[in-house]
C-alpha cells in the first residue's frame, strides 16, 4: 500500500462509509441473486422504491432492457454465464416506462476471480448530465455551421456572379465585389482561429508563454492602432498608476484581451473610452497577500443590462446587432483565467460598461 493510500484510508474510520454516502445509485445482489442493498440514489435514478427491490431476484427488482428491447440480465447472465467475466462496462439501458439509466456492474467471484459469483455490484447513473453535454455540443455545431455559412454564401455568390458575367461589370463594381469577398474570407479565417482558441480553452490546453511585459505600452499601442484606423484620438483616455509590479504574461494573448475589450468599447459602447492600469494588493489565498495588475476599460455607452451580465462571458452571446460572433469575451475570460487572473463587468461611473481584469503580478512561481 502506498503512503498516499494509507493516509487516505486512515482518514476514514472503519464503517464510516456506507451505501448512502455514494453519489451514484448502488444495487448489490448476493450469491443467490437476491438484492441485499438498494441505496436512495438508486431509488431516485430508477424510480423504484428500495422496499420493492430488497430481497427480490435482481432481474425482477431491476428489470433492465437494452435499446433493442432485450432483457439485459438474461444477456449478461452473471450467475450462469462465462465464469471468467468479472465486469460489465457502462451501458445505456432502459427501465420499464422508458426511463434511461447508465449501468455498469462488477461480478465478485470466489476462488481468485474464477469461482461462482459471490456478489453482483451494480452502479446506476442518470443520463441527464450526459444528455446536457450532448445537447450543448449539438448546439455548438449548429451555431458554428450557421456562422460559417453566411460569409461563405456571400463568397460563393459574388465569385459565381463575377465568373459568369465578368464582362458586364465596370472595374469599380468588380472591385467592390472582390472587397466583399476579401472581407468575408477574413471573417471565416478569424472565426476558425477563434474556434481553435475556444477548443483549447475548453480542453484546458491554452498554452501561456510568459515573458515580462509592459502593459501600459501595450495599451498605448492598441490605442494608436485604433486612431490610425480612423477612430477619433480624443475618444481614448489612458490612466496609469505607477509604480506597477513586474508582470509576467503571454504578450500575444494579453494583446488579444486588450484588442477585444477596446474593440467592444468602440463598437458596442459610446463616448470616451477610459483605460486604467493600476497595481493592487489583494489576498491570493487565505493569509497570502499578492500583487496584482488591474486593468479597467470603461465607456459611456448603454452598458450591459443587469439581467444579461451573467451571460456576457458565455460563447456566442451577443446583445447588440453590431457585427461580431459573440466569442470575443468568452476567449478573453479564458485567457485571463489561464493566467491565474479574473475578469468581471459592471456599470461604470458614467453609465457605460466597465470591464475589469486582474492578473497576478510578480515573478511567476516556476522562475523562483
Ligand atoms: N462595452 C460594451 N458596451 C455594451 N455592450 C457590450 C460591450 N462589450 C460587449 N458588449 C455586449 O456583449 C456582447 C458579447 O461581446 P463579445 O465581445 O463576446 O462578442 P461580439 O463583440 O459581439 O463579437 P466578437 O467579439 O466575437 O467579434 C456584445 O455583442 C455586446 O452586446
Ligand atoms: Mg467583441
Low-confidence stretches: 1-10
- Could you give the distance between the termini? 34 Å
**Looking at this structure, what is the CATH superfamily of the largest domain?**
Histidine kinase-like ATPase, C-terminal domain
- The proportion of residues forming helix, as a percent range, comes to 25-40%
Number of helices, where a helix is a run of at least 4 consecutive DSSP H or I residues: 11
User: In sequence order, what are the helices and strands, one letter per element?
Assistant: HEEHHHHEEHEHHEHEEHEEHEE
Gross morphology is: elongated
Structural class: alpha+beta
Q: Strands of the biggest beta sheet: in what spatial order?
A: 2-1-5-4-3
The biggest sheet amounts to: 5 strands, antiparallel
Assigned CATH architecture of the largest domain: 2-Layer Sandwich
Integer count of domains: 3
Q: Rg to the nearest angstrom?
A: 30 Å
Q: Write down the CATH class of the largest domain.
A: Alpha Beta
Quick one: how many beta strands? 12
Mean pLDDT: 88
Strand content: 15-25%
Amino acid at each position: 500500500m502506498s503512503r498516499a493510500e494509507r493516509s487516505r484510508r486512515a482518514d476514514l474510520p472503519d464503517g464510516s462509509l456506507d451505501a448512502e454516502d455514494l453519489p451514484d445509485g448502488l444495487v448489490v445482489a448476493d450469491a443467490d441473486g437476491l438484492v441485499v442493498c438498494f441505496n436512495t440514489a438508486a431509488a431516485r435514478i430508477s424510480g423504484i422504491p428500495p422496499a420493492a427491490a430488497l430481497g427480490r431476484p435482481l432481474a425482477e427488482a431491476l428489470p433492465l432492457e437494452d435499446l433493442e428491447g432485450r432483457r439485459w440480465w438474461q444477456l449478461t447472465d452473471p450467475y450462469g454465464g462465462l465464469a471468467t467475466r468479472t465486469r460489465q462496462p457502462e451501458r445505456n439501458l432502459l427501465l420499464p416506462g422508458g426511463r434511461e439509466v447508465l449501468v455498469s456492474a462488477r461480478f465478485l467471484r470466489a476462488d481468485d476471480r474464477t469461482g461462482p459469483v459471490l456478489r453482483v455490484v451494480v452502479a446506476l447513473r442518470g443520463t441527464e448530465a450526459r444528455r446536457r453535454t450532448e445537447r450543448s455540443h449539438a448546439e455548438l455545431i449548429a451555431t458554428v455551421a450557421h456562422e460559417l455559412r453566411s460569409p461563405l454564401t456571400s463568397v460563393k455568390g459574388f465569385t459565381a456572379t463575377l465568373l459568369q458575367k465578368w464582362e458586364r461589370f465596370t472595374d469599380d463594381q468588380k472591385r467592390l465585389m472582390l472587397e466583399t469577398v476579401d472581407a468575408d474570407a477574413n471573417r471565416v479565417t478569424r472565426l476558425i482561429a477563434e474556434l481553435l482558441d475556444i477548443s483549447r480553452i475548453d480542453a484546458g490546453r491554452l498554452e501561456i508563454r510568459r515573458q515580462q511585459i509592459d502593459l501600459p505600452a501595450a495599451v498605448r499601442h492598441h490605442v494608436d492602432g485604433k486612431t490610425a484606423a480612423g477612430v477619433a484620438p480624443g475618444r481614448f483616455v489612458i490612466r496609469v498608476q505607477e509604480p506597477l509590479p513586474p508582470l509576467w504574461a503571454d504578450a500575444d494573448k494579453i494583446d488579444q484581451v486588450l484588442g477585444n475589450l477596446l474593440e467592444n468599447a468602440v463598437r458596442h459602447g459610446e463616448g470616451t473610452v477610459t483605460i486604467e492600469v493600476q497595481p493592487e494588493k489583494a489576498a491570493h489565498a487565505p493569509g497570502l497577500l499578492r500583487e496584482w495588475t488591474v486593468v479597467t476599460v470603461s465607456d459611456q455607452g448603454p452598458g450591459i443590462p443587469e439581467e444579461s451580465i451573467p451571460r456576457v462571458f458565455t460563447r456566442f452571446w451577443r446583445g447588440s446587432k453590431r457585427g461580431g460572433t459573440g466569442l470575443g469575451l468568452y476567449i478573453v475570460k479564458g485567457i485571463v483565467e489561464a493566467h491565474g487572473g479574473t475578469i468581471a463587468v459592471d456599470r461604470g461611473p458614467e453609465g457605460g460598461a466597465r470591464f475589469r481584469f486582474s492578473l497576478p503580478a510578480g515573478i511567476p512561481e516556476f522562475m523562483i
